[in-house]
Amino acid sequence: MPRTAVRVTNETYNWVSDAHWHPSGTKIVATKWYFSRRSLGAGEGWEYEVPALHDPKQRRVEVNSGKRLVSRVLPLGWTKAGYSEQQIGHEQFSWLGNDTLVYSGNVKDVGGNFEYSKGIIHAYVLVVFYY
Amino acid sequence: MSLDIKQLSPLERGELPLASAPSVKHRRGSARGRLGSSLIAVLKYCIPTIHLVYVLSHNFVFTVPRPPGLNATYPSVSPFGANYDDPASEFNDDVFPLLPHDPWDISTDFPYPRTLAYDVGEGTWLRLDVHPISGDIVFDMAGDIYCLPAYSYSEASLTNGGKTRAVPVLTGVPHDTDPSFSPEGNRLTFRSDAGLGVDNIWVMPWAASGCSEMDVRSPSAMTAEAISQRVHDASLLAQGVRETEERRLRRLSEEGRLAGLCLDNM
Questions:
Q1: Residue A92: which of A129, A39, A50 has the closest Cα?
Q2: What is the pLDDT of residues B110-120, one digit of tens each?
Q3: CB distance from A100 to chain B under 8 Å?
Q4: Does A76 sit within 8 Å of B204, measured CB to CB?
Q5: Which of A62, A86, A91, B143 has the fewest other C-beta atoms within 10 Å?
Q6: Nearest-CA distance from A57 to chain B in Å?
Q7: Are the beta carbons of B16 and A128 separated by less than 8 Å?
Q8: Is A17 in Cβ contact with B178 (below 8 Å)?
Q9: Angle of helix B245-255 versus helix B224-238 axis, rounded to 10
Q10: Predicted ipTM?
Q11: Taking the mean position of all CA atoms in its chain, how far away is CA A114?
Q12: Per-residue pLDDT tens digits for B6-52
């Protein structure tokens, strides 16, 4: 087969980063960054199938394909209608075994807005998510 | 100073309680009660965790959960099971962009010469991965991906103080970063803004023989004819001359995105 770079994700606006392979080698988990009023995105955990390199028919990846594994959490009192305005999400997803994700999240900005200049309190924690 | 992790309780070790914990149970309550209770639970458990992470990071001792063995069992009840009310369930993901993009390609729709060249012995903001079998290292620098064969950091090599020239694997205008080998080591994912200029994840095969076979500047690719062709093609792009299919394939090949390379392990 020819050496060909093939896209796994086909995002046209909300970019993705930080891909981590599933132990099976069939899929990855990556952080998809959603813009809101803030130009730095809120992360969500997304799973993407890795297309088969030897089969050209499987290489086509539709725009925005993928599966949301970890959503942002709505701040207290928000309805789902405000979901796109939540500026805080999760990031750094990686597999722990076959069915568990480990990721980090900002637990200081609980109001839906990112606050700058938090100083030394600007702490992140690891959260274990059983999936 | 260091902490003895074994003497701490699970919570103090920075582990969150598992499926039986309040934060998990409350996910099954009403939406409002669930949010309030989980917030309290999250704060309750996170504050010691933040403190511990802070303490540990300042003592250069940091633990992450260890991967379970093959026979490890997980709780059968998932916090994201059938009763989980996904906050994103009413989000149609159509808020942005307001208008569709004009189709364009950062590799071709940029009518300026491509003149960047550098020869350096160190870099910053490099991300790397180690091949699970061969030990070869891939890393990114300034938007290109390179490979260092495992022998470059062998004891003999390090003792001699010898330097190894990194092998370019992916070059060109697209900003390619964050390479990562598949578990079997036969593929490599990376992040690239090829195409629209939006970062996406890409995958490419990885040769069993490693760096040397992935070299886009190998002697066979660096004939005088190929180099002059490359200069000519680049000048056409710089003048804004639309790229033909033949030139496109040639460019992808030179950048490492397309080459007549056969892999026997695919």
A1: A129
A2: 888 777 788 99
A3: yes
A4: no
A5: A62
A6: 16
A7: yes
A8: yes
A9: 120
A10: 0.92
A11: 18
A12: 444 444 444 443 333 333 334 344 444 454 555 455 445 544 444 44
Chain position carrying tokens 């394939």: B249
Q: How many CB atoms lie under 10 A from the CB of residue B107?
A: 21
Q: What is the pLDDT of residues A41-90, one digit of tens each?
A: 899 999 999 988 876 666 678 888 999 999 999 999 999 999 999 999 99
List of chain A residues whose C-beta atoms are within 8 Å of the C-beta of residue B91: 80, 83-84
Rounded Cα distance between B111 and B104, Å, is: 12
User: Closest-CA residue in chain B for A95?
Assistant: B67
Task: Write down the residue that tokens 């790229």 correspond to.
Answer: B243
Spatial separation of the C-alpha atoms in residues B266 and B263, rounded to whole Å: 6
CB–CB contact A17 B199 (8 Å): yes
pLDDT at residue B48, as a whole number: 44
Residue A16: name the closest of A59, A57, A67 by CA: A67
Select the residue of B18, B204, B207 nearest A6 (Cβ to Cβ).
B204
B87, B93, B196 ranked by CB distance to A64: nearest: B93
CB proximity under 8 Å: B 102-161 to A: none
pTM recorded for the entire structure: 0.75
At A48, the amino acid letter reads Y
The domain segmentation of chain A, as residue ranges, is 16-113+121-130
